[in-house]
Amino acid sequence: xxxxxxxAFLMLSILLMIASACSGDTxxxxxxxxxxxxxxxxxSGFYISQACLDGxxxxxxxxxxxxxxxxxxxxxxxxxxxxxLARYGDDxxxxxxxxxxxxxxxxxxxxxxxxxxxxxEVTQLGGQFxxxxxxxxxxxxxxxxxxxxxxxxxxxxxxxxxxxxxxxxPPSQSAYFVSSPTSRNAISQFTDDINIVQAYExxxxxxxxxxxxxxxxxxxxxxxxxxxxxxxxTSSNGES
Length: 240
Prior knowledge:
- By secondary structure, the chain is an alpha+beta fold.
- It has one domain: CATH 2.40.50.120.
- The protein is 24% helix and 35% strand.
- It has five helices and twelve strands.
- The strands form three sheets. Strands 3, 4, 5, 8, 9 and 10 form a six-stranded antiparallel beta sheet that branches. Strands 1-2-7-6 form a four-stranded mixed beta sheet, with helices on one face.
- The longest helix is centred in the first third of the chain and has 22 residues, at 2-23.
- The relative contact order is 0.16.
């Protein structure tokens, strides 16, 4: 039992080191328990958030409106990095943690290199796989069928950014409802023919309309005007 607990702790620590390298500064504590056939692991702690939207814009690689089209969980080998593959080869150690992977379709790009219509994935620590349930205070809940504004970044551990799953920026600040049956947001649905920026330019949306954060403790307020300003800045930089 002690060996299993130690192994679980080492697995979690390694994945948190990977998440820290990809996402920013984290500080965490670890706890676990077993209830019947279920094994629970919880990571609590805090993530260094951004004090303002401009800081958040600069912190991430992509700001996009997306539709969540699927969700799955996998056991991932936390040793699986290019450095460890080069070092161990076929003798790569195996230490597994649960990861939640959301498949998303890009509906609108405010900043970043992703393209409208592209289908990609967002991955994060936590979820349920079989009789193993793992959750962290860094977890960002997304609902299949809902639209969100997401603040995402590439993982610095990998060079081939475009073929790798994306990850969240500061978790408490990285996801905002657009419109869905479960959302408290009053912003209407958009079609493939008109996006948020175009709706604003046509006078269908006002600059001060805001989005509801997935995390209720998020103190940042994201508005239509903020996204339009970011899109205009991105367009200007691309043309210069």
